Every structure is written in structure tokens, then in C-alpha cells.
């Protein structure tokens, strides 16, 4: 039975769900709002975790950051599953054509040997760092509080897995399985990588979800992406004739541009709520970003040699400026 | 091109391994125990995480691509459904009772599962297992959101949906599914996988989703059918993960068997208790029935479950301990629960009603040995009271089971005339149970279950038994969301709108 109702006006009984009326007023809600606000259980939780009876199943007190309402950490991209997936599907289309462009025209083989080996040396061990970032964000999603914050972390986790997989494909394309093996060996024992691996492993034992957010998404990514993808790949390699590599890492550049806006919004909002939050965030950002800068220098040296120190300092300065804008003074 | 290096041909499996498993490494700055602190305390021994067989090989690029395709279709259909007042294609607005229960009780569970899988995606000590859990975490966010979005349009026109976020944590019957998910999430990672990954997603999912989605299809609910279909291929992955996980645990160490068996026994029983809501839905709430609860159980429970446990027998796994008791109660549970829901309909954000004569005919045909003998006489009595103007309502305190949180409305195994009630004294306090199964679950972990938040005592201790205050607190609008369907706003509006749509009547 099909009923054509265009001529029949039926008055809705209400605009949206009660919890959204309380938050946003009595008007129709967006799909982002419907899918994100107040959908996590908050009270009358039945049992304490057997894995840590000191904490509640959903617990705001496992982080030092205090927010009256965790749903203030709105994602400026308004990503819920649908908008997230559609956005990444478009990007993967582009990534796919970039990979096949490079592959079908043999651009990988045309890369000067020296550039190719720099690209592989710098990029391939990073697939392990991306795996660390994936686990860290899965943690923040799992133990963080409030869906507007935590769902974005799950998307971030899966993005980092995607990045690890693009880096692996880049390795296979330019240097076959040997490149992946060499990259892993470098990650595990190569002198250039131990400080970074130490950093990542230290993150794996941080169990304050917000500190982990700062260590991973703010500090490490905030320096690693500009240094590796802007300065080394787009800058250094491309200027020497290695722009094929930049085609293969376009996803990472676009991704960082997009996700930093979300990261900034989270930091700005949390810092703005209280001086105490601001101080905690400043201390964490200071501690982790200065460590990240030290850990990344030997990695940058692999490509830029003696230029590394200056490049890292420049990026630290622009990272500090970025933080200043959102209320974090370093 | 001669200079081209010939690349090794990688098989799919090998390639997937390089794109996932090979990303992990043995940490040296911190021990495994520091990085994965929760994998040992439950007593499950994993000797080699590399023996994990990836249940599906989906890289992120492929995931984004396939899922985006499904998302586009899903939202196109529910947009059209909303645009065209698709709700008027329902057989009857009574049907929405099932969907109200779904939004209040099941969708929050999808979200809890997502949080749980995100935790497992971090806590398990093997990349293959972690990635599979993370993808499921992502899928479960999808399911919670697509359900809310599909049901959102019904909320605009019908009552009982508007307070689902408040009632999730406060109303008495949502405590049944929520305590189930809280129970799983407060357990260790391996028990969580047996609870949600295996028992819920594998053993019980067919008994939950197939009846709901077929019920939707039979009753003209295009929105719900659409999210059901759209979730199906995700569910197929989840089932594969659940099964792989249990096999993995059993293959890793013989010492794991008794632990796993106890979890299967426990979670089967907890799951069956939740399914009593599905039974009531199938037998009573659907204006156009799909099949009886008993028929569904015969197909999806007995046949499919039987095959599954035959398959697992080679590991030494026996069918769940409560299986026979559960099967014996199949011809009673939906009737007992719906009778309960009817008498407590003042306190539910959905309507109750007395089954029509036609409905009772159908029930007696489907339940020839039980309905006429035990349940028809009760409904006839209730009908008589209703006709006399003294409807049968119970404003009393329902005694809830300490474990499953259902009111103790079920009868003794083998004696449908005797209410089943069990008691355990622990540290000087008495705890009540609806069944042996629930009592045993408590007795195995009393320190856990004594923490259960029981909504009825809370009503009396915190609100002094003030029912009006309680209704405000749970978001229930008296005379709007609750009570009898006959004469409700939902009924009046649906009939009026449908009249406007199918005839020349104007409001």
C-alpha cells in the first residue's frame, strides 16, 4: 500500500528527543546531535569493573581534566559514523587513484635510488608508530567520557590504522617486502628510532585518557606530521624530483589538516573551562612535545642531515604558536 | 621496462598479514604485562597470539568504501520514509511498542558494545584480535546511530520514544539489558568476548534481530527493516569474530575449557532472560505476527544452536547448562512476561493491552498445550474486570531478580502453576532470584552482583514511593506514554491520520 500524503498535513507531536530539547532548545535536531549526545550510560551503573574496582564503568575521574559536562567537547567536523565514513571513502578514492597513477606509470622505479631509500628509511618505520597511535586512540575512545569526544577518537584510531596500511603499501610498492622488514628492524633497533619508539611505548602505559590524547594527538602528531609529510616529503623529496612519494602520502597531509582542527577544538574547550585544566594541559603539552621534538630529530636527520636541528626548531616554534592560539602557553 | 624489479606476488592472506599483524612489535621499554595489564587475571592462557586466525580480511580503505556505500543507501531510504510519512504504512500503531522497547533497551546496548570493543581493541595482546575488535567498535557506533536515526521520525509523531536517554539509566525494565551490558563490561576482556562477541552476537543475535526485523517487514516498518538489512553484513562479521574468539581460547590451552564453559553457561542464561522481551514482542505486540516465539526458538535456538554446540563439542564444550530449563519454559515465558507488562503498564513507556479474541485464537493455535490451559483464563478474567470498569492494575512493588533484574514472574521448571523464587543469604543480606540460573550466577560472584542497582527499591528509598516524582525522573508522561493502548493518543492519532490519508476525512 502506498499512501500519497503530499496534500495531507500531519502535525508532528514534537521536534526531537527530550535530552536534545534540554541541550539545544525545542527544535529539530541534527543527525550529529541525535547520534552523539547523551547516548552513553551515565548513572545507576550496576557493577564496578573487576579489572579495576577503583574505577566506575564510565568514569570522569580517571583523568585529571575536569569538565562539568563532557559533551562540551564538540567535534567541529560534526563527524558521526555516516559523515566520517563518507568523508574517508572519498579520500580513499583519491588515494587509490594516486597509488595506481604511480604504479601504472612506473613512477616508483623512476625515483632516484637515493631519494627512494630516504623515503623508505623515513616512512616505513612510521607504520609502527601509526599502529601505536591506533592503540592509543582506541584506548581514549574506550575509557574516555562522553560520545562527542570518544567517537571521534575511534575514528582517529581507525584513521591511524589506515595510515599504517597506506605506509605499508607504499613500502611494498617502492621496495617490496624487504622494505617492510628493513623498516621494522630499524624501528626495533635502529639508533634513529629508539627515542621515538620509547615515546610510543611510554604512551602505551599512560592510563589517563586525556593525557594520552595530549601525548599522542596533540604533541606527537602535532610535530610528526608537519616534519615528515610537509618538510620531508612535500618539501625536501619533491624539490629533488621525488614528488611521486608525495602522491602516495597525500592522504596523510589532508588528514592532518582536517584532524588538527578537531584536536585544537578539544584542547581549547578543555583549557577554557578552568585554570586548573589549563595548567594541567600546559604541563602535559610541555612535557610530551619537548620529548617528541627530541625523539623526532634523529628521524628528520635521516632525510635532512645537518638541516634537521633547524627544521625541528622551526616546527616546534610553529607548534608553540598553534598552541598559543588555543590557550596553551608553552 | 627491463629495469623494473619483479615484485613478489603476495597472496591475500599474506598481504593482509603485512597490513595488520606485522604492524605490531614486542615492546622493550615496557613489559607485556605493563602494556596489556588485563589479559591474565581471568585465568585464560594464551600461549601464542599469532595463532589467531583473522576472521575477515578487511583493510581500512576497503572498509570505508563498502560502508560508505551502505550508508548512502540507508539514509536515502530513511529520508524518503520520513518525507512520505512512511509511518502511516504501519499495520497499526500498536506495532510501535516493539520499536519503543528496541530504542529504550537495545540501542543503548549497541553503544555499550561499541565502548567495550574499543577497550578490547586496546587490551588484547595481538594485533589480529585488536583490529577485529576495533572494527566491531566502529560498527557498533554505526548501529546505535542508525537505529536512533531510523526511529527519530517515529518519535516526532508517537509517544514513548522521547525520553529514551533518561529511561536508559532510570526506568525499571531497561535495567534488564543494561545490567547485561554492564556485567559484560565490568568483566575481563575474555569474558567480555564470550558475553558479547559469542553469546550475544553469535548464539542470541538470530533470536533478537531476525524476529525484530521480520516483525518490522511484516508490519510495514520500512525504517527498521532498512537498518536491519544495512546492519546484516556487519553482523556477519561480528558472528565470525565471536566464533573465532571462542575457538582461539579453546585451542590455546586446555586449562581454558572450564572457564569458557562456565561463561557460556552464564551468558546463555542471561541472554535467555533478555530474550523473554523478544518473546513477548513476537507473541503479543506485533499486529501481524511473523511466527510464534516458540517457532522462532525451534529454528534459531534449537536447530542453529544445536549445530553450533555440536561443532564445539570437539573442544569439549557442552551445550549451556540451562538449555533444557530454558527450552522447557519456551511455551510459558512470553505469556508470563506480557501479563506482567500489562499489569505494570502504568510504569512502562509503552502501552499494554488485552489481546483480542483473534489474538487469543492465534495464541492457542500456536501454544496448544499451554495457552488455553494456563493463560487464556487469566486474560478472560482481566477482560471481565476491564468490562466491569475495574481494570486489573498492579501498582505494587515488583520483586526484581538480583541478577537479571526482571520481575520474578516466571514459574518453576515443570510446574507452571508455581511461581519460581530463589533466595540466597550473603553477609547477612537476603537476595532474591527468578531462577536457579540467576541464583548460580550470583553465588559464583556475589561481590559483583550485590552491587546491582535495583530500580524498584531505589524508587522507594529515594523518592519515598512518590510515583509522580518517579515518572518525572524517568521521563515518563503519565496518560501519554504509558497505560492501555486502547484510547491512547497513539491510537487516536494513528487512526485519524490514516483516515485522512485514505479517505476524505479531515481532522
Textual characterization of the structure:
The complex is a heterodimer of chains A (330) and B (507). Chain A is mainly alpha-helical and 330 residues long. Chain A has one domain (63-325): Orthogonal Bundle (Ribonucleotide Reductase, subunit A), CATH 1.10.620. Helix content of chain A is 70%, strand content 0%. Chain A is built from 13 helices and no strands. In chain A, helix 6 (126-143) runs parallel beside helix 8 (194-203) and helix 6 packs antiparallel against helix 9 (209-239). Chain B is mainly alpha-helical and 507 residues long. Chain B has a single domain, classed as Ribonucleotide Reductase, subunit A, CATH 1.10.620. Chain B is 63% helix and 3% strand. Chain B contains 19 helices and four strands. Chain B has a two-stranded antiparallel sheet. In chain B, strand 3 (422-426) and strand 4 (429-433) form a beta hairpin. The longest helix of chain B is centred in the first third of the chain and has 31 residues, at 127-157. The model of chain B has no long low-confidence stretch (mean pLDDT 92). The chains are: A mainly alpha (330), B mainly alpha (507). At the A-B interface, helix 2, helix 3, helix 6, helix 7 and helix 8 of A face helix 3, helix 4, helix 5, helix 6 and helix 7 of B.
Amino acid at each position: 500500500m502506498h499512501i500519497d500524503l503530499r496534500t495531507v498535513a500531519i502535525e508532528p507531536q514534537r521536534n526531537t528527543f527530550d535530552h536534545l530539547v534540554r541541550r539545544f532548545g525545542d527544535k529539530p535536531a541534527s543527525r550529529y546531535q541525535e547520534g552523539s549526545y547523551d547516548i552513553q550510560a551515565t548513572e545507576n551503573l550496576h557493577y564496578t569493573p573487576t579489572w579495576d574496582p577503583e574505577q566506575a564503568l564510565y568514569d570522569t575521574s580517571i583523568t585529571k581534566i575536569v569538565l562539568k559536562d563532557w559533551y562540551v567537547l564538540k567535534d567541529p567536523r560534526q563527524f558521526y559514523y555516516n559523515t566520517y565514513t563518507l568523508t574517508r571513502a572519498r579520500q580513499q578514492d583519491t588515494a587509490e587513484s594516486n597509488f595506481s597513477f604511480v604504479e601504472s606509470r612506473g613512477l616508483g622505479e623512476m625515483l632516484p635510488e637515493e631519494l627512494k631509500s630516504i623515503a623508505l628509511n623515513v616512512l616505513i618505520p612510521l607504520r609502527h608508530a601509526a599502529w601505536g597511535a591506533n592503540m592509543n586512540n582506541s584506548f581514549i575512545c574506550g575509557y574516555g567520557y562522553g560520545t562527542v569526544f570518544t567517537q571521534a577518537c575511534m575514528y582517529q584510531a581507525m584513521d591511524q590504522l589506515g595510515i599504517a596500511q597506506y605506509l605499508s603499501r607504499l613500502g611494498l610498492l617502492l621496495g617490496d617486502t624487504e622494505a617492510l622488514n628493513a623498516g621494522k628492524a630499524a624501528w626495533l633497533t635502529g639508533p634513529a628510532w629508539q627515542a621515538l619508539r620509547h615515546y610510543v611505548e611510554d604512551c602505551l602505559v599512560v592510563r589517563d585518557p586525556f593525557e594520552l590524547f595530549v601525548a599522542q594527538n596533540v604533541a606527537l602528531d602535532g610535530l610528526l606530521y608537519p616534519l615528515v609529510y610537509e618538510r620531508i616529503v612535500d618539501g625536501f623529496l619533491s624539490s629533488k624530483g621525488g614528488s611521486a612519494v608525495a602522491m602516495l602520502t597525500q592522504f596523510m597531509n589532508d588528514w592532518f589538516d582536517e584532524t588538527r582542527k578537531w584536536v585544537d577544538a578539544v584542547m581549547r574547550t578543555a583549557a577554557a573551562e578552568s585554570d586548573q585544566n589549563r595548567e594541567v594541559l600546559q604541563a602535559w603539552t610541555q612535557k610530551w612535545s619537548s620529548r617528541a621534538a627530541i625523539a623526532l630529530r634523529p628521524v628528520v636527520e635521516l632525510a635532512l642531515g645537518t638541516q634537521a636541528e633547524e627544521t625541528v626548531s622551526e616546527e616546534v616554534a610553529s607548534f608553540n604558536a598553534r598552541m598559543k592560539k588555543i590557550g596553551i602557553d608553552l | 621496462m627491463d629495469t623494473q624489479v619483479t615484485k613478489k606476488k603476495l597472496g591475500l592472506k599474506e598481504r593482509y598479514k603485512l597490513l595488520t599483524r606485522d604492524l605490531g612489535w614486542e615492546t622493550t621499554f615496557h613489559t607485556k604485562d605493563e602494556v596489556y595489564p588485563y589479559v591474565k587475571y581471568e585465568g585464560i592462557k594464551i600461549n601464542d597470539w599469532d595463532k589467531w586466525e583473522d576472521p575477515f580480511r578487511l583493510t581500512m580503505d576497503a572498509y570505508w568504501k563498502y560502508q560508505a556505500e551502505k550508508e548512502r543507501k540507508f539514509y536515502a531510504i530513511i529520508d524518503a520514509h520520513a518525507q512520505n510519512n512512511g509511518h502511516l504504512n504501519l499495520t497499526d500503531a500498536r506495532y510501535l511498542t516493539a520499536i519503543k522497547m528496541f530504542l529504550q533497551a537495545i540501542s543503548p546496548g549497541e553503544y555499550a558494545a561499541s565502548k567495550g570493543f574499543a577497550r578490547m581493541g586496546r587490551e588484547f595482546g595481538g594485533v589480529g584480535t585488536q583490529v577485529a575488535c576495533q572494527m566491531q567498535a566502529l560498527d557498533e557506533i554505526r548501529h546505535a546511530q542508525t537505529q536512533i536515526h531510523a526511529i527519530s521520525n517515529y518519535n516526532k509523531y508517537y509517544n514513548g520514544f522521547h525520553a529514551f536517554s533518561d529511561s536508559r539509566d532510570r526506568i525499571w525494565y531497561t535495567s534488564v539489558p543494561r545490567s547485561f551490558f554492564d556485567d559484560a563490561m565490568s568483566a575481563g576482556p575474555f569474558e567480555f568476548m564470550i558475553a558479547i562477541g559469542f553469546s550475544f552476537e553469535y548464539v542470541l543475535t538470530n533470536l533478537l534481530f531476525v524476529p525484530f526485523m521480520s516483525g518490522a517487514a511484516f508490519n510495514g516498518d520500512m525504517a527498521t527493516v532498512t537498518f536491519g538489512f544495512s546492519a546484516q553484513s556487519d553482523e556477519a562479521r561480528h558472528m565470525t569474530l565471536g566464533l573465532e574468539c571462542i575457538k582461539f581460547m579453546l585451542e590455546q590451552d586446555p586449562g581454558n575449557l572450564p572457564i569458557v564453559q562456565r561463561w557460556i553457561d552464564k551468558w546463555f542464561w542471561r541472554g535467555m532472560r533478555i530474550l523473554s522481551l523478544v518473546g513477548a514482542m513476537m507473541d503479543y505486540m506485533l499486529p501481524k505476527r511473523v511466527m510464534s516465539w516458540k517457532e522462532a526458538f525451534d529454528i534459531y535456538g534449537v536447530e542453529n544452536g544445536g549445530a553450533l554446540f555440536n561443532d564445539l563439542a570437539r573442544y569439549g564444550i557442552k551445550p549451556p547448562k540451562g538449555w533444557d530449563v530454558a527450552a522447557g519454559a519456551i511455551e510459558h515465558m512470553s505469556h508470563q512476561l506480557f501479563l506482567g507488562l500489562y499489569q505494570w503498564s502504568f510504569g512502562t513507556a509503552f502501552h499494554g493491552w488485552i489481546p483480542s479474541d483473534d489474538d487469543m485464537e492465534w495464541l492457542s493455535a500456536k501454544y496448544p498445550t499451554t495457552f488455553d490451559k494456563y493463560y487464556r483464563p487469566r486474560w478472560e478474567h482481566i477482560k471481565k474486570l476491564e468490562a466491569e470498569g475495574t481494570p486489573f492494575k498492579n501498582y505494587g512493588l515488583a520483586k526484581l531478580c538480583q541478577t537479571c533484574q526482571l520481575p520474578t514472574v516466571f514459574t518453576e521448571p515443570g510446574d507452571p502453576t508455581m511461581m519460581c523464587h530463589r533466595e540466597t543469604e550473603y553477609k547477612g543480606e537476603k537476595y532474591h532470584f527468578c531462577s536457579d540460573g540467576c541464583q548460580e550466577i550470583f553465588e559464583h560472584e556475589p561481590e559483583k552482583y550485590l552491587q546491582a542497582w535495583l530500580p524498584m527499591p531505589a524508587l522507594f528509598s529515594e523518592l519515598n514511593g512518590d510515583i509522580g516524582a518517579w515518572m518525572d525522573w524517568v521521563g515518563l508522561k503519565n496518560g501519554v506514554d504509558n497505560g492501555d493502548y486502547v484510547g491512547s493518543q497513539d491510537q487516536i492519532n494513528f487512526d485519524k491520520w490514516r483516515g485522512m490519508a485514505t479517505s476524505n476525512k479531515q481532522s
